[in-house]
Amino acid sequence: MQFDSYTSRVNKKLESYLSVQNSLAEPMRYSVLAGGKRFRPILAYCVASLFNTDLEKIDSSACAVELIHAYSLIHDDLPAMDDDDIRHNQPACHKRFNEAQAILAGDGLQALAFEVLVKDSLLTDHIKIELLSSLTHAAFEMAEGQSIDLSIVEKKVDVSVLENMHRKKTGALLSCAVNLGAIVAQCSENDRSILQAFAQAIGLAYQIQDDVLDVEAPEGILGKNQHSDIDKNKPTYPSVIGLEASKKAYQALYVKASKELELLSVNAHSLQQLIAKLQSRKF
After folding, report:
1. Residue 58 is part of which domain span?
2. What's the total number of domains in the chain?
3. Is this structure's pTM higher than 0.90?
4. Per-residue confidence at 1, pLDDT binned at 50, 70, 90?
């Protein structure tokens, strides 16, 4: 399957970027190379491929967005944040090493993400600036979303608060992955606008679906503790609007994302396939 080849490709690239030996090498490698769906790199590759872009030019973007994602997971798992002990069916970084090393590993991965983009000799300076602008904006939005998440624990909130939080905490980086692919491909502004509407829809759908899976999926499949949000009294879509309504909400968003793709100037078959894959995911 095409997505498997993208996963294999980004894994090899990540391995090469994390091959430098230093005091943070072990916790950084542990957290990035342990696994993961690689959904964000796959999005970047798929978008760039729609416009027949050389994949070598998108490698740095695919790795950068995944490094930012990995750093965010390390920090999210910390006792001061979500306080989770399991990630990808193994001890979280701070449990395998310690809290200080986990914080530093996350900081290192964030810095490495930007270095990877800056040092890509295949990209023009103009494109690099666009990519860096998109990634820095998404990284800030993601941090803001996490802040909102922590601030509403044990509170009753309206679904609009959840939507805003999810669009920042999860959606911003997913939208960024799509945008990075579009920037490198140098597609038209109209196509870029359509892709952003698609990305916003799947970004929110993905997180609502995660809320549902946190209730329904077995712990061994999730790769992390089941019911972790419920146990922490964190508002989720199922707790606010109900489980069935949550399922309908994310399914409707995937339909919306699919319809957006029909407006593109190119055939978006691969992204349509990706939507179908996401709809049927179990973790």
Report:
1. 2-279
2. 1
3. yes
4. low
